[in-house]
Amino acid sequence: MQTFRLVIKNAFRHKLRTSLTVLGIAIAILAFGLLQTVVGAWYAGVEASSATRLVTRNSISIIFFLPLSYKEKISQIPGVKQITYASWFGGIYLSEKNFIPNFAVDAKSFLELYPEFILPEKQKKDFLRDKKAGVAGRKTAEKFGWKIGDTITLKGTIFTGNWDFNLRGIYRGAQKGTDETQFFFHWDYLNESLRKTVPRRADQVGWYSIGVTHPDRAAEVAAAIDKTFKNSLAETMTETEKAFQLGFVSMTEAIIIAIRIVAFVVIIIIMAVMANTMAMTARERIGEYAIMKTLGFGGGHIAGIIFGESLIIAFMGCALGIAFTYPAAEAFGEAMSTFFPIFNVKSQTIYLDIAATFIVGLAAALFPAWRAVSLKVADGLRRIG
Amino acid sequence: MEQRKFIVEINHLYKSYRRGSQILPVLQDITLDIAEGEFLALMGPSGSGKSTLLNLIAGIDKADSGSVRVGGLDITALSETELAQWRHSHVGFIFQFYNLIPVLTAFENVELPLLLSGLSRKERKEHARMALRIVNLADRMEHYPSQLSGGQQQRVAIARAVVTDPVILVADEPTGDLDRVSAKETLDLMERLVHELGKTIIMVTHDPRAAEKAHIVRELDKGVLNADIQAGH
Amino acid sequence: MNIPFSYSLRNLWTRRLTTVLTASGMALVVFVFASVLMLAEGLRKTLVETGAYDNVVVIRKGSHSEVMSGIDRLQASIVETQPEISIGENGKRLLAKEIVVLVNLSRRGSDKPAMIQVRGIGEASLPLRPQVQLTAGRLPRPASFEIIAGANIAKRYKGGGLGETLRFALSDWTVVGIFDAGNTGYSSEIWGDADQLMRAFRRPVYSSVLFKLRSSSDFQGFKELVESNPRFTLEAKRETQYYADQSEMMSNFLSLLGLSLTTIFSLGAVVGAMITMYAAVANRTGEIGTLRALGFRRRNILMAFLIESLLLGLTGGLVGLFFASFMQLLTISTMNWQTFSELAFSFSLTPEIVGQTLFFSLAMGFIGGVLPAFRAARMNIVDALRAA
Asked: How many Å apart are CA B230 and CA C18, to the nearest integer?
């Protein structure tokens, strides 16, 4: 155990240098953790989405609508248990900077198919009763200080005009990954207005969400739906919700790749900082290593001391960096809330932090250890002067 | 013998160091005059205060009380900036471990103090070359310190000390790190500086052979200067 | 007179391993810093080149983008008769009534879909966009199932090459021409005859009206007319502004991410420089004492170490910039969140970015070096000499 004490003492011999190195590693681990969390946030929608629900949309692209009449036809297809529909409303609250995902939904069937949106029983009743009612996610309600009973005005982008909604409910997510920033309201309210103003756009929905009786038959059902509408005016494209979300993510893939590369670069930067410290330390102590060799310590022993010191410093930085990561992710998530509704540090990120630290600690000690091992005693002693 | 002028006049000099809450007296009531062209050796056991006295004469340390006059100027009254300038033009340093700058060549090391003078590039070169010729190293100008032997390094250091043509040279254990032959060469060189160039040398040493070369040997013990011991001359 | 420059330089050279490690850490940070600036600049350039200042885009009020907009034929023809519109060489008005829809296409060599803008063009559409050049084939004939594809589409999407066919809106469309629009968004579009596309997609309305102003100063008047007249439910924007608004979210995201990264990274690099410089000071304590004894002042010592640290920063900066300059060969292609359509832009290096990057790297060197340099300068001569 004497060796272990020596390792600890060595690590703290240069208090300033050790603290700076620990700080440097902590910063890098923090950056790495944040970047991993950004990548995770990118896929949060994919993870929260279900592999058993299907999404049917216009095959041309998401901006084209489907007729409401498809609802009955889809319901009759074997394997379809539940169906609901929604339209992307694209309304703006006060200013374009306040991005809130907002949809017009068929409220009753929507809440049945999406049990992850948890609404207290009373609020649910109020929402279903009031034609002009809207429901907001917890995060959005908190961000804008909305209270139940407030009137929320959204400026339409796809559907012209200002739209007033009565906030009747605030939902919570059932899981950590559930998006708590959405706002949804009655599709009927939208449709009735459109009938009066732009009749040609009435009775159309953005997409259908479908619950299937047997999840393992989802692919079969999807194919059956698309076949039903083949060569009709609005051909459909049906895929699982997960695949649908993944499609969106893959369109921004370039940015994810860039972030991944940067995360990798961070690790190399820590390596440079850490390797530098170890190289300097070992150079200063070469005389001591020579003395230890004269005293009969083997090269392996000395290498062990160097590796131990490197790993201790690296892991102190790692621990500090991980401790920083949580509050930093919170602040960063706040600033980025427009882009990422979900921004949580995953335990997988922490494991990656630890693995990276281990590699960095080992790599940094490699060269100094090799030098100490191959050191000739006489050369080392001469350096003491 | 005519009355020689004193180049260094030290009066009632006190110096102490603080170690924790303790105050350790290092020099107590030192009074010493050194004549121009003198070669003085300061001897004494470790911790006797001889190096501190040397540092005070050279103006790199501050006394608690008393005065050090060099060439009539009381250097204890100078500010740090004034001291730096004064050192540059009046004092040459010779150290035990030569203290050459490892990344500069022998020539550049000697030229270094001249950068602080107003000399032109050309003049600096001439002066530095001449100083290296005096120490007999004109052929080693482009060598780095690591490529020179200990004795050669010390001679470069001596060239650096004399290049600004200072009034006094201070040497702290100049032979402490040298073998017997190199030590003798170095001492001979120092003696030549006194005889031929009229320099005043104040040297701290442990080495009896070095002390032999000096005109005067003074001994310090526990911060107190003992009576004169005239050297063999 | 100062301690010679070569002293600082050679000290870095002597401790090569440490210098290389520190400088490469800084180089990576500078690389990221420069890349982020280049990306933002590339995006800006794309937008600037896409729009012309004297062109005006008219879309439905509040719709923000052509994709979401809709203008009925009546309103479009009223806009067409406004006096602010410039007249082209052939005596016709430089105005195009266009339709923009998104379609799903697959990339070559993968099944991953991307949403591509299909633009129905009029006669004036090409003259209004001088940056768009037909590089192969010919223009589509009116009322035919013919299209021309942007260079990006031709290169990267299945069925996008000359003579190939693409299927959308229940029809097959033959690519009869390829056009190049440089870095602009048009390179990722497909163009066809507006009326034919409206029929095929069963959309009775235009998406936008684009025209060139007769005089640049006419814009304000036209905007007020369109936006105050209750007959219109339209809004008008200069084309440059329109495209800047389109990518606001993307550029905000890039700058926010870039800023956070650069801040965190530069902290790391400064710490790295500080470690190196503190070690340099510690290793050279004796030298510092000697220099001081020779008559060099505190500020000379301070300068020597600061110069050393600045050199370290500059080395990192130059290396980082060198590698960052290769990023110009890359094009980032991603979905624009605001329009759901493809947005492609490259990294772009400008003299300003070079200046900013070098300043940034020197600043890192300075901040990393200033505390160690002060420690060196504040050393007591006697103590420093004793450490030799």
From this structure: 54
Contacts of C114 in chain A (CB under 8 A): 251
Domain boundary among C212, C230, C260: C212
CB within 8 Å: C340 and A99:
no
Q: Is the pTM of this model over 0.90?
A: no
Helical segments of C144-185, H only: 151-156
Whether residue B1 is contained in a domain is answered as no
Spell out which residues of chain C touch residue B80, defining contact as CB-CB under 8 Å: 298
> Quick one: closest CA in A to C368, which residue?
A20
Report whether A206 contacts A10 (CB < 8 A). Answer: no
> Smallest CA–CA separation between C8 and chain B, in Å?
9
Shortest CA gap C9–chain B (Å)? 9
Phi, psi of A231 (to 5 degrees): 65, 20
> Nearest by CB to B87, which of C6, C295, C298?
C295
ipTM: 0.81
CA A348 to each of CA A36, A297, C38: distance values in angstroms, whole numbers, following the listed order: 9, 40, 32
Residue B103: give its domain's CATH number: 3.40.50.300
Does residue C256 sit at the A interface (CB-CB below 8 Å)?
yes
Residue in B57, B99, B164 to test binding to C, most C beta-carbons within 10 Å: B99
Judgement on whether residues C207 and C307 belong to the same structural domain of the protein: no
B205 in a domain, yes or no? yes
Show the tokens assigned to B135: 């120490």
Cβ distance of C1 and B99 shorter than 8 Å:
no
Q: What angle do CA A348, A350, A352 make, to 5 degrees?
A: 70
User: Residue-wise pLDDT tens for chain B (233 aa)?
Assistant: 445 678 999 999 999 988 778 888 889 999 999 999 999 999 988 888 888 999 999 988 889 999 999 988 999 999 888 888 899 889 999 998 888 888 889 999 999 888 888 888 899 999 999 999 999 999 999 999 989 999 999 999 999 999 999 989 999 999 988 999 999 999 999 999 999 888 999 999 988 888 888 999 999 888 888 766 554 44
- Among chain B residues, CA nearest to C297: B84
| SS3 at position A318 | helix
- Distance, in Å, from the CA atom of A223 to the CA atom of B178, rounded to the nearest integer, reads 94
Minimal CA–CA distance to C123: which of C169, C191, C183?
C191
**Chain C neighbors of A273, CB-CB under 8 A:** 21, 25, 268, 271-272, 275
Domain count, chain C: 2
